Amino acid sequence: MESEIEAVRRSLLTGRIVAFTGAGISAESNVPTFRGAGGLWRNYSPERLATPEAFSSDPRLVWEWYDWRRGIVRAAQPNPGHLALSELQRRTPERFTLVTQNTDGLHERAGSQDVVKLHGDIWLLQCTRCGREERNEQVPLNLLPPLCRCGGIQRPGVVWFGEMLPEDQWERARRAARTAEVFIAIGTSAVVHPAAGLVLVARLTGARVVIMNPDPTPVDDLAEWILRGPAGEILPRLI
Ligand code: NAD
Q1: I need a surface site. Which of 66, 82, 117, 208 has the fewest CB within 10 A?
Q2: What are the structural domains, with CATH classification, of the chain?
Q3: What is the secondary structure of 10-26 as a DSSP string?
Q4: CB of 192 shorter than 6 A to ligand 1
Q5: 73 CA distance to ligand 1 centroid (A)?
């Protein structure tokens, strides 16, 4: 893999770079991915809980799961993969964009700036009645489901399966993908759409695609380089 790493390192020296991250980049910070080991909670799969339907039928159950995940994220620290991306941005500020599907805030805690957040933020609470948003980092929450000051039930400020992405973030991500010369997809199973479609957008508009993942993904065919292994080990070697 040394020669691929060297080739990717060279490709980062000029041109626009997009790093596109998924849950895998936080795996080495002990935040469970959705599909890997540790993804299940009380035998529920995340695909069953992270949906508007699950929330309307049992908001307390969904909140118990998020409360558990918030506790894990609170205890987690950014790992060398997050830190390497923040360092890459520091060195290439004019030509670097970080797009994440993660809601855990670990990129920001590692020092990354202007992160494009496609799936929201686990520390945001959003009222289902009046729409008011607030930041709340309390773990555990003292009432499940939490209530807004208007009395409405609050939901987590994240994007669930079947929901639209925030339009401004999606536009920024698409623009970055279309103008990227190197597009590095890190730790994503690339099955959650529309986010996963960014890899194809980047490829079709001329980017050289890099996939970094210990396992195969459905977009491997689009890659010029595949770096098989954990992001926390490979990313620091690229920088
Ligand atoms: P996913 O769970 O579907 O896939 C994770 C991917 O990471 C897998 O392909 C796996 O092989 C890979 N991986 C595991 N360990 C890795 C490592 N050390 N280095 C690099 N790759 C590694 O996650 P996804 O593709 O992000 O999609 C799931 C959705 O769930 C996301 O859109 C996100 O919103 C949400 N999610 C977020 C978090 C978080 O914020 N940390 C965690 C779980 C899920």
Answers
A1: 208
A2: 1-31+78-119+165-239 (3.40.50.1220), 34-75+120-158 (3.30.1600.10)
A3: HHTTSS-EEEEE-GGGG
A4: yes
A5: 14
Q: What angle do CA 18, 21, 25 make, to 5 degrees?
A: 135
What are the start-end ranges of the H helices in 12-126?
46-49, 52-57, 59-75, 80-91, 106-109
For the segment 43-81, what is each residue's pLDDT rounded down to a tens digit? 888 989 999 999 999 999 999 999 999 999 999 999 999
Where do we find the tokens 């997050």? 82
Backbone dihedral angles phi then psi of residue 140, each to the nearest 5 degrees: -75, 160
33 lines ligand 1 (CB under 6 A): yes
Is the CB of residue 97 below 6 angstroms from any atom belonging to ligand 1?
A: no
Q: How many CB atoms lie within 10 A of CB 52?
A: 14
How confident is the model over 103-155, as pLDDT tens digits? 999 999 999 999 999 999 999 999 999 999 999 999 999 999 999 999 999 99
Residue 2: both structure tokens together: 């040394």
Tokens 């469970």, residue located: 32
Residue of 84, 106, 80, 111 whose CA lies nearest to 17? 84
Nearest CA to ligand 1 atom 18: 230
Alpha carbon 104 to chain centroid, angstroms: 8
Give residue 80 CA to ligand 1 midpoint distance, Å.
16
Catalytic residues: 119
| Placement of tokens 């799961």 in the chain | 65
pLDDT at 2: 87
Atom 4 of ligand 1: nearest residue by CA position? 189
